[in-house]
Design goal:
With 286 residues, the chain is α/β, with parallel strands linked by helices. It has helices at residues 17-20, 64-74, 85-93, 137-141, 180-185, 195-201; strands at residues 9-12, 24-27, 39-41, 47-49, 108-110, 161-166, 190-194, 208-213, 216-225, 232-236, 280-285. A hairpin with a 2-residue loop joins strand 8 and strand 9. The protein is globular.
């Protein structure tokens, strides 16, 4: 895949497979080391919010807006060039009635005095009728049935488990696994497996197990628990790194994405959702 790209540029604060295979890596400061652009939080009480750096960058890194400005300056795109974060913020706030100083107290500025609810007496949906439509003309015209006949989900075969994954509050996907402080707290993921199923396979809590699919295997430590369905196993996403430059994360835990071959081809053509949790694996004690 990488060889088919003419040019790949990564703007990142950490190593990743994409960055490792990039032609150019532009190092970005971590979020505590950079001034960020003003963003909008849409809610019942919408607001602008701003993030200011807590410390100066430790290394030769820049905020994303500084990287864009530097490139724009070299490409003769003056409308994208800002010398300071204050210049950028003032540009963003033009015409809003909000100033940079308004963020000093809380880091955010509310754009409404009280929650803004829709007037449902006058509200209309963005449909031809202005109402909720059970049969959607747009879907039907695109050849997609509005009420698709029920299709039973695929179940694991005997000896297989559905591979499921999730996140945790400690790590940001796989980006922070190599961080020394966070790695000390959670350096690898574990494979949650149902107690009864683990007993059948002779697996005890903490055992190293082999997870396999179509000839591909990885090893991981088992976490035996009653709190998972017998047909499924579960891992925290973002582990199993294979870049040696990530010395703390290298080879630790299991990469769930390696067991999702063909998953991009199983998707909902109406909504766009991808079937990330429709893959099956075997588990055995090592």
């Amino acid at each position: 895949m990488w060889d088919k790209l003419d040019l790949l540029v990564s703007v990142t604060f950490s190593w990743s497979d994409t960055a490792w295979h990039s032609d150019v890596v532009l190092p970005m400061s971590t979020y505590l080391e950079r001034e960020s652009i003003i963003a909008t939080k849409n809610a019942l009480k919408p607001q602008f919010f701003m993030r200011k750096r807590s410390v100066e960058p430790r290394y030769d890194t820049l905020a994303e807006w500084e990287i864009v400005s530097g490139l724009a300056k070299r490409m003769d795109l003056p409308e994208l060039v800002f010398e300071t974060a204050e210049d950028l913020w003032n540009f963003q706030l033009e015409g809003t009635g909000v100033s940079v100083e308004d963020f000093n107290a809380k880091g955010m500025v509310s754009l409404a005095d009280k929650p803004k609810y829709k007037d449902f007496e006058a509200f209309k949906f963005k449909t031809d009728s202005g109402k909720i439509e059970i049969i959607s003309k747009k879907l039907e015209d695109a050849g997609l049935p509005s009420l698709k006949p029920y299709e039973a989900p695929v179940f694991p075969k005997a000896g297989e488990f559905r591979m499921t994954f999730g996140r945790c509050a400690l790590h940001t996907q796989g980006h922070t696994v190599n961080n020394p402080l966070l790695n000390e707290q959670m350096g690898e993921n574990t494979l949650w497996i149902n107690t009864a199923k683990a007993d059948e396979l002779g697996i005890k809590d903490g055992d190293i197990v082999t997870v396999g699919q179509d000839g591909y295997t990885e090893t991981i430590r088992a976490q035996v628990t009653d709190h998972i369905h017998p047909d499924a196993v579960f891992v925290i996403h973002g582990f199993g790194h294979r870049l040696k430059v990530e010395s703390r994360a290298f080879g630790k835990g299991l990469a769930d994405n390696k067991f999702m071959k063909g998953g991009m081809d199983v998707w909902d053509k109406a909504g766009g959702a991808i079937a990330y949790q429709e893959h099956f694996v075997t588990v055995s004690k090592q």
